[in-house]
Amino acid sequence: MKRLIIFFAGTFLFFSFVTSSVAEIDWNISSDFKTDSTPLDLASSLDGKLIFTLSKGKVHIHSNDGKLKGTIEVNPDMDNISVSGLSLAGIEAKIYLSSTKSRTVQEISYSFVVQINTKNSPFLGKEDAQVEVVVFSEFQCPHCSRLGPLFEETLANNPETVKIVYKNFPIRGHNNAKPAALAALAAHEQGKFWEYHDELYANMRQLGPKKYQEIAETLKLDLEKFKKDQTSPEVKKQLERDLQDAKQAGVRGTPTIFINGRKLKDRNIVSVQKLIDAELDRLGKEKNVD
User: Could you tell me if 98 and 142 lie in one domain?
Assistant: First the structure.
């Protein structure tokens, strides 16, 4: 009898411990949207900003408020999805699909094609070129300073179809990057952006007000206008526009390069030319369809 009492007492204590550890849950539906087709599976990006729904033959990518951002055609046999990628950590965005029917697994690398406003931005090449190579860069970035030969070769190989566009993206912590960008844009007001651009990179370790003035003198700029333009509302607005365009394009660091809105993954002439050729081919097909 004593054993039985002890057993029940132990059971009661265990039950009390379990029930007392159950917490109250406060919850609400933060998002609710309908998809165009029946979802087979879904996944979320690590930062929670994107939702991926897999339906038969398609992956739909939504923002977390339900807006459709894009659709990818996939193998209709695929019925499971997971995703990886975190731009802040430099982890490439990928989608992983699997099929219980065929027992296959597929890895898809993806990126969004973005629209970038290049109006009034400095450029090299033909103004009406079919392909825009847009580089987000800054004047304290060592990697950016070494892009010259790549762009020179790109223009030499594609003189009629490509232009190189420069967009400023001064990084926080690089104290001279923003003043240097303003100085370069002030030189742009006098048609000397690229000459000034080259001199800034050649003097990266000496950047400062004195050096900006020296470069302006070397390039025989109108010094009074140059000084005024560095702080003018128009030049400041141009820089802010570049920063806003960078944010919208998802730029996190420099250099970041887009070719007709498609992000370049490898900064070498082979990868650049491959993407240029793909764009020219795509544009040619669209023209023939029209």
Answer: no
Indicate if the pLDDT at residue 35 is higher than 70.
yes
Which residues are within 8 A (CB) of 26 and not within 5 positions of it... i.e. 6 or more apart? Answer: none
Query: pLDDT, tens digit, for every residue of 39-69?
Result: 999 999 988 889 999 999 999 999 988 899 8
Q: What CA dihedral angle connects 7, 10, 12 and 15, to 10 degrees?
A: -120
Dihedral angle, C-alpha 242, 244, 250, 254, nearest 10 °: 30
Nearest residue to 290 via CA among 101, 282, 73, 241: 282
Supply 210's token pair: 């004195």
How far apart (Å, rounded) are the C-alpha atoms in residues 242 and 204? Answer: 21
Find where tokens 């003035």 sit.
213
35-59: b or e for each residue (b if 16 or more CB lie within 10 Å)? eeeeeebbbebeeeebbbbbbeebb
Flag whether 24 is in a domain.
Answer: no
Same domain, yes or no: 49 and 75: yes
The b-or-e profile of 183-221 (16+ CB within 10 A means b, else e) is bbbbbbbbebbbbbbebbbebbeebeeebbeebbeeeeb
Q: Is residue 146 part of a domain?
A: yes
Paired strand residues for 168: 137
- pLDDT value for 6: 46
Written as one letter, the residue type at 52 is F
Going by their DSSP bridges, the two strands 162-168 and 123-125 should be labelled as: antiparallel
Structure tokens at 283: 């544009």
Residue 126 has φ and ψ, to the nearest 5°, of: -80, 135
Decide: residue 25, CB within 10 A, 0-12 exposed, 13-18 middle, 19+ buried: exposed
Side chain identity at residue 215, one-letter code: I
